[in-house]
Amino acid sequence: MAGWRLRAVLPPWAAIAGPLAPRCGAPSLRLVEQSGAAGLTGLPLTELASPHRQASLWPARPASPTSRPGGPCPLRIMALVISVGLTWLVASILLGGPGGGFPRIQQLFASPENSVTAEPRARKYKCGLPQPCPEEHLAFRVVSGAANVIGPKICLEDRMLMSSVKDNVGRGLNIALVNGVSGELIEARAFDMWAGDVNDLLKFIRPLHEGTLVFVASYDDPATKMNEETRKLFSDLGSKNVKDLAFRDSWVFVGAKGVQNKSPFEQHVKNSKHSNKYEGWPEALEMEGCIPRRTTAS
Fold first, then answer.
1. Which distant-in-sequence residues (6+ apart) come within 8 Å of 35 by Cβ?
2. In angstroms, rounded to a whole number, what is the distance separating the alpha carbons of residues 54 and 155?
């Protein structure tokens, strides 16, 4: 009886893969005829029916349905890792990064005329004006009080002269005196026109020098204590509405000592129960603009 020997038969790609080949699959085992060798014992005769038949030993140990003999190929693992990495990179770029939504995909498919772009925020200039003032002009903003809750504000050249934050405003008339040449603040005071003394106001505005700018913002009640002399003094400063100013009216005004005509910077809203924005008070007024500096001081 011819003898048999076991010989490992490697797959054809083993010569190319080199040392990695054993990990990509197990070699086939064949029984080959060997003259003069001892016969195999313990094998069924059906397995040795023909001396030329290749006998596989794998059926003797069933393979797991979820695994392959010899384990996965490292080259395949490397290819899988590279594929996953490239997929993640492309997805991150298209999706705009973590938390970025889908803006970049939309940019790829959106036409230029349909693309949505954020409108640039409007630039603000001194005191929040939408446009800069010409040279030799002073930028200002005057806001009256709202009812008896929100205090007035007077801003000049981006400096807040009077406000609730500065704690220098109060019920009545809030007045800031400014040098018309330099734009520097001379003095700022609040005068209670409901329970205060009107003489304090008269002493404040009677001795004004020519060229002094006068900024006025009402708060709550600007007129109960106002008398004829007070109204005439404000009229001489350029006011045309002071003669009609009454209880709880809203009033903002910018005038100057020595003006020839009425000031263009004045707003007035009457207190009326039919048109008041607040219960018992009209709406707050807001006025802004540019005042030319006085070239010489008297």
1. 2, 3
2. 102
Q: pLDDT of 136-176, one tens digit each?
A: 999 999 999 998 899 999 999 999 999 999 999 999 999 99
What predicted TM-score, i.e. pTM, was given to this entire model?
0.60
Are the CB atoms for 265 and 254 separated by under 8 Å?
A: yes
d(CA 201, CA 181): 24
Of 181, 191, 193, residue with least CA distance to 256 = 181
Tokens 């040795």 map to which residue?
A: 48
Question: Which tokens sit at 140?
Answer: 């200002």
Quote the tokens at residue 54: 């290749």
The pLDDT tens digits for 235-267 are 999 999 999 999 999 999 999 999 989 999 999
Cα distance between residue 150 and residue 173, in whole Å: 14
The residue whose two tokens read 């029984």 is 31
Q: Kindly state the DSSP code that residue 148 receives in the 8-state scheme.
A: T
Phi, psi of 58 (to 5 degrees): -60, -35
Q: Of the candidates 182, 177, 179, which has an alpha carbon nearest to the alpha carbon of residue 136?
A: 182
Q: Tell me how far apart the alpha carbons of residues 219 and 189 are, in angstroms, rounded to a whole number.
A: 13
Backbone angles phi, psi at 14, to 5 degrees: -65, -35
Contacts of 34 (CB under 8 A, 6+ apart): 2, 3, 4, 5
CB distance 234 to 269 below 8 Å: no
- What six digits make up the tokens of 13? 């790609």
CA distance linking residue 33 with residue 50, whole number of Å: 10
Beta bridge partners of 214: 177, 255
The length of the chain is: 298
